[in-house]
Specification:
Pfam families: QRPTase_C, QRPTase_N. The protein is α/β, with parallel strands linked by helices and 283 residues long. It has helices at 9-24, 30-35, 57-67, 96-126, 145-154, 172-178, 181-191, 205-213, 226-236, 253-257, 268-271; strands spanning 41-48, 52-53, 72-75, 82-83, 88-95, 133-135, 168-170, 198-202, 218-222, 241-245, 263-265, 278-282. It folds into two domains: 9-125 and 273-282, Alpha-Beta Complex (Aldehyde Oxidoreductase, domain 3); 128-271, Aldolase class I (TIM Barrel, Alpha-Beta Barrel). The chain has a six-stranded parallel beta sheet with strand order 6-11-10-9-8-7. Strands 3-5-1-12 form a four-stranded antiparallel beta sheet, with helices on one face.
């Protein structure tokens, strides 16, 4: 896969600190502090319990080093790479108290993000050979959007807009309140800058024809059948980006991609992907 830029620490650290503070409470890790000598050092392995794709190692490292900057991590499988069950993703070494105190926060984030990357990779693989890109949506865990969208990229997918200020996406309720598609598009053009792209959600070929006549940049083809999608792509004829959405699974994705759509957006990649089971084992 292409080079995967890491997330800036300044973006990740507040999220990691909030998670650690939630876990530490008012008294800290009373179990570890009572049992483990303050000068004890340890080496532990982040090991995969199942096959998958890794994402979130920098986030996990941030959890450990936020507790104690002396912790060091050696990476065996970088973000975006596949790991087999039993494989060592990374090794961490340093003060034992820090490793144990940060363990759950590090694993919560690493397992969650790797689960998203693994789910994304499965759908990307399913549409291989077609031009369609797999993209995520704004259906993310509050506070974790940047991390979850990063995990989608680690799995070989791409990102839809990051927030309400990225681009215009005119949906059915916007159209209902505006009165019709043409009015909604006209108001969007008048109310946004020249660099802002406009996408319109349509659920019928009749709506698609109106949107195309208005010259939109992209059309979201919502919950259309494979047959409708193929006809819609033909109607568009390259005049706008085509995005298919609704009821997409690794099983249905190949047929959807075969219609020629440019994008396939999937909400469950971020809101429902199961974790990748990863453990922290003493070496």
């Amino acid at each position: 896969m292409p080079h995967l830029p890491t997330l800036p620490r300044i973006l990740c650290e507040p999220l990691v600190r909030a998670a650690l503070l939630e876990d530490l409470g008012c008294a800290g890790d009373i179990t570890t502090d009572a049992i483990v000598p303050a000068d004890a050092v340890a080496t532990m392995a982040l090991a995969a319990r199942q096959d998958g794709v890794v994402a979130g190692l920098d986030i996990a490292a941030c959890a450990f080093t936020t507790i104690d900057p002396r912790v060091e991590m050696d990476i065996g499988h970088a973000d975006g790479s596949a790991v087999a069950a039993g494989g060592v993703i990374a090794t961490v070494r340093g003060p034992a108290r820090a490793l144990l105190t940060a363990e759950r926060t590090a694993l919560n984030l690493l397992c969650h993000l790797s689960g998203i990357a693994t789910a994304t990779a499965a759908v990307v693989q399913a549409v291989r050979g077609h031009k369609a890109r797999i993209v995520c949506t704004r259906k993310t865990t509050p506070g974790l959007r940047a991390l979850e969208k990063y995990a989608v990229r680690a799995g070989g997918g791409s990102n839809h807009r990051f927030g309400l200020d990225d681009a215009v996406l005119i949906k059915d309720n916007h159209i209902a309140i505006a009165g019709d598609i043409r009015t909604a598009i006209a108001r969007a053009r008048e109310g946004t800058g020249h660099m802002v792209r406009i996408e319109v959600e349509v659920d019928s070929l009749a709506q698609l024809e109106i949107a195309l006549a208005a010259g939109v940049d992209a059309v979201l083809l919502d919950n259309m059948s494979v047959e409708q999608l193929a006809e819609a792509v033909s109607m568009v004829g390259g005049r706008a980006l085509t995005e298919a959405s609704g009821r997409v699974t690794p099983q249905t994705a190949p047929a959807i991609a075969a219609t020629g759509v440019d994008l396939i957006s999937i909400g469950w990649l971020t809101h429902s992907a199961p974790i990748l089971d990863i453990g922290l084992d003493a070496v």
